[in-house]
Amino acid sequence: MLRLCWPRQISRFSLANPFVWSSRTLSSSNVPPLTQTSAQWNNLTEAAQEYVRNKFTLCGPKELHICDGSARENEMLLDYLVKRRTIEKLTHSNFENCYLARTDPHDIARVEGKTFVCTKNKSDTVSPVKFGASASLGNWMSEESMDFLLEHKRFPSSMDGRTMYAIPFSMGPVGSPLSKIGIQLTDSPYVVCSMRIMTRMGQAVLDHMKKSNSDFVKCLHSLGRSQGMLDSWPCDPDNTVIAHFPNRNEICSYGSGYGGNSLLGKKCLALRIASTLARKEGWLAEHMLILGLTNPQGRKKYIAAAFPSACGKTNLAMMRPSIPGWKVECVGDDIAWMRFDSNGVLRAINPESGFFGVAPGTSMKTNPYCLNAVRKNTIFTNVASTNVDGLTGIFWEGLEDEVNPEDENIRIAAWNGIRYSPNSDFPGPAAHKNSRFCTPASQLEIIDPAWEDPEGVPIDAILFGGRRPSTIPLVYESFDWTHGVFVGASMRSMATAASIEGSATTRPVHDPFAMKPFFGYSFGKYLHHWLSMRDKPGVKLPKIFHVNWFRTERRRHPHAEEMKEVFLWPGFGENSRVLEWVFKRTDNEDVARSSAIGLMPKHGSLNVKGLDELTADTIEKLFMLPKSEWQLETEKIREFFLNQVGDDMPQEIWDQLDALEQRIEAM
Ligand code: SAT
Ligand code: MN
Fold first, then answer.
1. Cβ count near 565 (within 10 Å)
2. Per CATH, domain 285-352+445-665 is 2.40.50.140
3. Which atom belonging to ligand 1 lies closest to the Cα atom of 498?
4. Which helix or strand (DSSP H or E) is residue 374 part of?
5. Which of the residues 67, 219, 235, 311 is marked catalytic?
6. pLDDT-derived band at 505, boundaries 50, 70, 90
7. How far is it, in rounded angstroms, from Cα 244 to Cα 219?
8. Rg (CA), the chain
9. Strand ranges (DSSP E) for 102-213?
10. Closest CA to 631 of 593, 595, 663, 598
11. pLDDT tens-digit profile of 46-82?
12. Residues 6 or more apart from 596 whose CB is under 8 A from it?
């Protein structure tokens, strides 16, 4: 069995620590055993030292390493991970400084059922659930009960024999007034390397903290006492728990090393903790991509868009428009922090500095810019590997033009290491459906020039969307802000493999604002907060739209007997046609007509020039509003609101639902 400790033989840091490690308790003047000189310890603010000391004592690692974020440190960690077989270096000439990680097969996605927000009163975290219904918009536990669980059952000795890494990081550009600082303690070097991509991490943050004595979000992460199947991927899936304490800006995550469970800056800080801060401070922390859209005349607008995990946010954010003269540039693909500035303009920053995107389906056709970006400095997780003449590359479903899985000279190992064969008997896909790339945003050739602007970019439109095979048209616009908030509240989408729970569901689930797994406080209060934006003096409210690229119909396959569900809309670069219509609407162009559910494109106003395979009949189907389906839709929405929000629901949202029902009845 491989030891999980820092490998001294490859450590280039001196162990100059003068303190003798004799007991598990550190007094307030003690420094934990360091892998570095104690100068690094003195780089921490006093508050940070105290936090680290306490958690060091609790988790009992053998030593502490304070991350400076340098290339040298990163290389050393990567080397260590390769030696430990957590990651493998890609040696194929297509890749430069890229790695593949394979997780334990039980640690492959977010675990919503084991994710908690802990407050004094349950009503702060979840709206009152109707008797007999179970809460679907978040899990609550009291602070006391969770503290007891973590301090007595989970974290004691959880880092035994390992190194604890302290990662100082900034969500948003270091020093920007919109940014937030965190310190993540973790016993996973894979997490350190990933956090270095996804956040601004290291010395610059320490310097900033010292200079401004800034507060920080406390983030503790441990892989746990390993119960997993692999020495290379310790984890404790049965006992995983991810806890948030908004009242003391603290996150504790035990037992999982993957994705949003372990990269605590992402969903835990930038959405759950940030949404509670945002409510207090009057801004919005949202699960949204941000893109810049330039028309052929050179005018530019910015759009933010909320879709649930694994519904194409990354593809939309990096789209290559199919319509001539239009340009998309990417600010972010997952999270937007937005606030109205003193001129009443809604400004957004992307708090992250990397993309942690779903790999399968990414191809030269669907997202060429992204595919180019992931060729260097990228950590892939749970994609399949290829071996050609002893050189390691990668494969996922969608990459068939690059790698032909039928080619006998290419040996493919599926995500879990099993030899892959592309025949129908092979159990499941080669790459795990929630396999990811983790790549620096700066490598994207269409990264927006303003993506790191500390002021943020001005948002003209907000889109909501999801995967809906029926009922929901390609695009519609809300009548106004209040109606738009209702549209966000009513979102439903087919579940995806981004969460463990999602992979088992085949019907649309309610995912309001695409925030279902990420609310830091109760949904009812969240709606009040969104509505309150309208009342800020002098604000220019962006228009709100709903889009659905995923409407299908059953068609007979031309060469086969069986019927297949086919998408009505080609998607990807063709979605620029919808963005063009949105752009025109933000200019108040007269291209919309009223319908029962909102404003839809006037006949002929959606640009379908050149889309020859799209028949008039199909266009009609893309915008069809079947009365019975919409009656069912509003029934589901009402049931959801009654079950999950109850008395917390703003009256205006009930009024919106009543009005929608009446308009549908009159259809
Ligand atoms: O695993 S993550 O939560 O980071 C990805 C996602 O679900 O969007
Ligand atoms: Mn996401």
1. 9
2. no
3. 7
4. none
5. 311
6. confident
7. 9
8. 25
9. 115-119, 140-142, 163-171, 180-186, 200-201
10. 663
11. 999 999 999 999 999 999 999 999 999 999 999 999 9
12. 625, 630, 660, 663, 664, 666, 667
pLDDT in tens, 175-201: 898 999 999 999 999 999 999 999 999
Q: pTM (2 decimals)?
A: 0.95
**Is 311 annotated in the active site?**
yes
CATH 3.90.980.10 for domain 356-441: no
Distance separating alpha carbons of residues 540 and 347, to the nearest angstrom? 11
Write out the two tokens for 288.
């949204």
CA gap 51, 166 in Å, rounded: 10
Question: Phi, psi (5° rounding) for residue 566?
Answer: -120, 145
What DSSP designation does 236 have?
A: -
Each residue of 302-338: pLDDT tens digit?
999 999 998 999 999 999 999 999 999 999 999 999 9
Fold designation for 38-86+106-281:
Phosphoenolpyruvate Carboxykinase; domain 1 (3.40.449)
Q: CA-CA distance, 198 to 22, in Å (whole number)? A: 37
Check pocket membership of 266 for ligand 1, CB cut-off 6 A.
Answer: yes
Taking each continuous run of H as one helix and of E as one strand, the counts in the chain are 17, 33
Q: How far apart, in Å, are the Cα atoms of 109 and each of 97, 163, 197, 310?
A: 25, 25, 19, 12
CA of 378 to the centre of ligand 1 (A): 17
Q: Per residue in 438-493, pLDDT tens?
A: 999 999 999 999 999 999 999 999 999 999 999 999 999 999 999 999 999 999 99
Length of the chain: 667
The pLDDT value given to residue 10: 35
State whether the beta carbon of 309 lies less than 6 angstroms from ligand 1. yes
Domain spans, the chain: 38-86+106-281, 285-352+445-665, 356-441
Pairing between strand 391-395 and 140-142?
unpaired
From the CB of 498, is ligand 1 less than 6 Å away?
yes
Cβ-proximal residues to 236 (8 Å cutoff; 6+ apart), any chain: 223, 224, 225, 226, 227, 228, 254, 255, 256
Identify the residue whose tokens are 């915008």.
623
What pairs with residue 65 in β-bridges?
165
List, in order, residues 6 or more apart from 8 with CB less than 8 Å away. Answer: 15
| Atom of ligand 1 minimally distant from the CA of 266 | 4
Question: Which tens digit of pLDDT belongs to each residue from 277-303?
Answer: 999 999 999 999 999 999 999 999 999
